[in-house]
Amino acid sequence: MKQQHITVFGSFVVDLMSRAPHLPVPGETVKGSVFRIGPGGKGFNQGVAAKKAGADVTMVTKIRRDTFGNIALNTMKELDMDASHVFFSEKSETGAALIMVDEATSQNAIMVTLGACSEITKENVDSVEEVVKNSGYLLTQLETNVDAVERVVDMAHRYGVTVVFNTAPVQPISDELLRKVDIITPNEVEAEILTGIQVDSEENAQKAAEYFFGKGVKTVVITLGKRGVFVSTKQKHGILPVPKVDVLDTTGAGDAFNGALVASLAEGKDIWEACGFANAAASISVTRMGTTPSMPVRGEIDKFLSEHK
Ligand code: RIB
Known about the structure:
The chain is an alpha/beta fold. The chain has helices at 42-52, 67-78, 122-126, 129-133, 146-158, 175-178, 188-195, 202-214, 253-266, 271-285, 298-307, and strands spanning 6-9, 13-20, 34-40, 57-63, 86-88, 94-102, 108-115, 137-140, 162-165, 183-184, 219-223, 229-232, 237-240.
């Protein structure tokens, strides 16, 4: 099967990351041990993850022509990614995320200011119609303005493009939008917030999946962190475990998963094989620091899979 094109529609922000022995509580100052600045944003991380996994990707996002915006453009150039569908704001600066990582537990706390990528206009969305129409998959999340997400999902749905919808950062989702989603990919916390069902067992994960099926979603993929991923289609459901790895930084692991998932689906793999591939990409990413820079290349994912059969 010919590899299908993927449109990734979503946020770009610059990640300002510090690691420290513990996360500060309000009012506390903690001395950090490492500081890194680099490309990030859930949409961009997912686009890069798909590209590095071997996919044919168009990244749609919005930045400003400023110092942080140049980080997006330079990264895309380095990775040979098409930047012709990056929009430029005249109003707001390129967004930024303040990320604090606890060295002891690898947990993080993030404050993201979306800036330019929360201003994607109707006209911006309409201008990518040809790209979306010619894609096999649209991958998007909730880290840009929601009206733009709704518009691009509607467009993809009208053309029969498979919509893969990552529910991060979680917020209420209309039934109208859910109806057009083919594959939904919440993590367990997001699944609980959206469905009201605590995803603490396979049985309850299936109940959460049934909630989404009731809204018209066709396939449910709930990421469970170190427990792996729960996959549910109308025919079959189950958990695909992940191998144990030395975790350094879990930030962006969900993005690694989503990007690699769509890359594998676009090669014609079924949802089970694609989730195994995505688990491998996420497992590698958590052994590295940072977000966009932690996304593995195809050879690394294939090697990981052959070593962890
Ligand atoms: O999912 C991780 C991403 O979320 C980070 O890159 C940060 O930008 C935040 O938005």
